[in-house]
Here is the input.
Amino acid sequence: MPRFDANLTFMWNEVPFLDRFAEAARAGFRAVEFMSPYDYQASEVASRVRMHKLEVVLFNAAIGDFARGERGVGALPGREHDFAAEFTNALRYAKELACPRLHVMAGVLPADASDEVVERYRRTFVRNLREAASQAAEQDVALTIEPINRRDIPNYFLTRQDQAHAIREEVGAANLKVQMDFYHCQIVEGDLTETFKQWQPHIGHVQIANVPGRHEPGQGEIDYAYLFRMLDERRYDGWVGCEYKPRTTTAEGLSWLFRLIDRGAAAE
Here is the structure.
């Protein structure tokens, strides 16, 4: 069975963020991820992680100003100094939280961006990633980049797995990988099994949610029972982040995972 971690930005929204660590541990998770810890002191978050014997496996770096609609600054020309400052801060949090990987968000293109503008964004992203990967390697931290569908984030720079892997190859850093979120991939390109097989050696993290609605597995068009078997057969040993919006409460929505655990125990 894959190793699942709880995304605390999406799950247990019934309680404040710092209380979600206890909820995740109580539900049986050993690891967590989240979008952003920066509204809290790193020591505050680290204290909850240690208290509940959890691992932090991923959070976002260089996210920009979310309140103003930014979704990362990694690819934004003219924002290189902002990127460098935010990334340095992310590495500080990663050290405090003993987190082994950071997702570097690319950012949003202008509406109706020309090919020339898109190319400027790509070159900026490559340069920023090279520098960030070098800094992260000194701390033994891996970086990921993630294709995201433009229905959820209009005009997001990075949308396809092949696009992300082309950037990864151009950067040429051993500690740079690509995230494969089955939810985003299903919306943009589909063919999830073959896409995963094609890029598996370079996939650094997997995330899940169903389509439509971005809800939990078992309720939508993606056959997650099949995909979880595929991950086992392919011996994927990374984490699978539960980055979905529970239909009702988080606890009620976890029935899919408890059934999976029960089946695994019965098979043993």
Residues 3-267 form a domain with the TIM Barrel fold (CATH 3.20.20.150). The chain has one domain: 3-267. The CA atoms of residues 133 and 173 lie 6 Å apart. Confidence is low (pLDDT under 50) at residues 264-268.
